[in-house]
C-alpha cells in the first residue's frame, strides 16, 4: 500500500513555479504554467497536474521546449484564428488561444481558435472552462502527445486518446463540465496505476493478440481501447483531423511520443471554440435552464447498484471542494519523483 | 426470413415526392425532402430514409408539421446564426442551415448555425457533407426525436441518442465521414430489427433492472446504452445542451416522442458548423494530407479476427457504390408499410 500526503494548491503551484524557474523558464510564464498545473490537481486531474512536472523539466533540459516563445496569430478571420505556439509550453499556448477565442466571440458570437507548434497543456477542462467567465460555453479538443490507440481492428498505434472537454455554465448549480478521452481510460491513468502499483480493470487495454491487458507496467505490450469500439476510434480520428491536420500540427505517424523523446518539438495541435451565450439567448434564462437540467438529472431514480446519478464534472467539483479544504493527496511514488526533479535543480522539495 | 427487393434512388425519391405532395407538402419542398430521403437510403442509412415516410406522413395528417413554413434567421453575428425552423420538415430547415453556415464561413472562416422549431431531418451525415462542396469541413449535431437513454446509472429516459457527424474531404480518396449516435445502437436500428424480426445483440439495450434486452419488440421495456458508459452519457448530455438548450429547442423532459405523438410540435434542435479549410491551410495540401491519412489507416496490420481497417464513412461509401449500381434493398415489411401509406393517399406504390 502506498502512503499519501496532502498539500495545498498554493504549495503545489509554488513548487511548480520555483522548479520551472530553476529550469530557466521566465518567471511570469512559469507562474501561469504553475497555477494551471496546480489547478489541474485541485480539480482532481491527478494524471495532468504536478505529476507531469518531471517530464516537463526533462523536456526543457533536453532542449525540446522553447523557453522564449513568440506565441502569435498566424491567420485570422472574424470567426477563427490559427495560432503558432512557437513550441512554447502548452499551457501558455492554450491560455492564449482560450482568451483569444473569448475575445473574438464577443464580436462574432462564436470563435474557433486552432493551434500548431504547441505542447502538452494538462487536462482539457482547464481551457474549456476559461470562456465561462465571460458567460460563454467552451469546447476544447487536443491531440494526445503519444499514440496508444490503433484504428479499430488494427494493431498500429496511429492515434492518441484525443480528448474533448465542453463546459456549460449554470446559475446556482455547478457548471456542467465534460472532460473525456476518446479511449476508455486516459493514458495518464495507466501511468498513475503503474506508479501506485495498482492493477488495471479489464477493458482499459488489450495486447497485440486482442487479449485483456491488466498489468500497467506492461502497457508497452498493448494499446488502449476506444469507447464504443469503432465509434471511439472514429471520434479520436476526426478530433485528430480537426485539432491536428487542419492546424498544420502533428497527427498519426507524425505524433512525437513525449514520454520517450524529449528533444523533438511535438508540434501539438489543439483547438478551442468559444460560444457566446448572449448571441443565442438571454444569458440568465439560459443559465437557469442549465440549473433545471442539472436538478432534473440528479432527481432521476437509479438502477440497481447505483446510488445516484452524476453530472459531468460533478466528481471533479466535489474533489475540488475537498482539496481546497484538505489539500491535494499525493502518493509517495510521485513525491519521490518530484523530490528527485527538485534536487537535480537545487530547489526546495514539496513538503 | 424476410424478402428483399431493390429500388433505384430515383424511384425512391419519386415515390417520396409524390407521397409528400399527396399529403399537401408544396412540390418544391417535397422535392428537397424526397431527394434527401433517397440520398439517405443510397448512403446506407436504412433507418433514416424512406423507412421514415409513414411517420412523416402521419405527422402531416395529424397537423404536427407546418407545410407553409417561413424558415428564417432570428439572430445573427459574423460567426453564428440562430434559425427559426417554423416547425418545417427538418430536411428543409437543416439544408437551409447548412447552406447558410457554408455561405457565412466563406467570410468568417468558421460559422456555427443552430436551429429551433425544426423536426427530424434524417441521418446526420447528410448535412455534415453539404459544406464539403465548398471545400469546407462540416460538423453536425442533433437532438434525437425521442428519449431512449437515461443519465448513467439512472432509469428515467431524459436523453436521446443525440448523434454527431463530421465530414472531411480528401482529394482522391473518399471523404472521411463519421456519423454516429452517442448510444451503442441508434434507435432506428432497433426499429428496423423489430420490423425484420431480428434479435438485437447484447450491449444495445438493458431493461429497468439493468439486465440485457435483446428482443427489439420489447424495446419499450428498457433503454439504449451509451458508448463508453458514463462517457457516452456525457456526450449525449453536452450535445443536447448545445443543439437543444442553447438554441431554445426541446431537451430532456421537453422532448416530444415523435413515434408516439404526431400532433405536438417537436421543437427539434440541431446545429451545424462549417469550417473553411482555406482559412487554415492550403486546400490542396490539406486534402492530400487527408488522402495520406486515409491510406495510412488502411495499411495498418490487423488484429486476429479482423480482415481490414475501415475508415469512418467507408462502409457507407461502399454501400453507395453498390446501391447506385444495383439499387437500394428494401425489406418486405417496409414495402408493406409504404404501400399502406401510399394507398391511404391514393398514390402509386413503390415497385
Describe the protein's architecture and organization.
2 copies of one chain form a homodimer. With 351 residues, the first copy, chain A, is an alpha+beta fold. Chain A folds into 2 domains: 1-61 and 326-351, Hypothetical Oxidoreductase Yiak, Chain: A, domain 1; 69-183 and 226-299, Ribosomal Protein S8, Chain: A, domain 1 (2-Layer Sandwich), CATH 3.30.1370. Helix content of chain A is 38%, strand content 18%. The first copy, chain A, contains 11 helices and 12 strands. Chain A has helices at residues 9-22, 27-42, 53-61, 90-108, 125-128, 187-196, 230-243, 277-280, 283-298, 314-326, 332-345; strands at 4-7, 72-77, 80-84, 110-118, 136-142, 164-168, 176-180, 205-207, 212-213, 222-224, 268-276, 328-331. In chain A, strands 2-3-4-11-5-6-7 form a 7-stranded mixed beta sheet, sandwiched between helices. In chain A, a hairpin with a 7-residue loop joins strand 6 (164-168) and strand 7. In chain A, helix 1 (9-22) packs antiparallel against helix 2. Chain A is globular, with a radius of gyration of 20 Å. Chain A starts with a strand and ends in a 6-residue tail after the last helix. The mean pLDDT of chain A is 96.
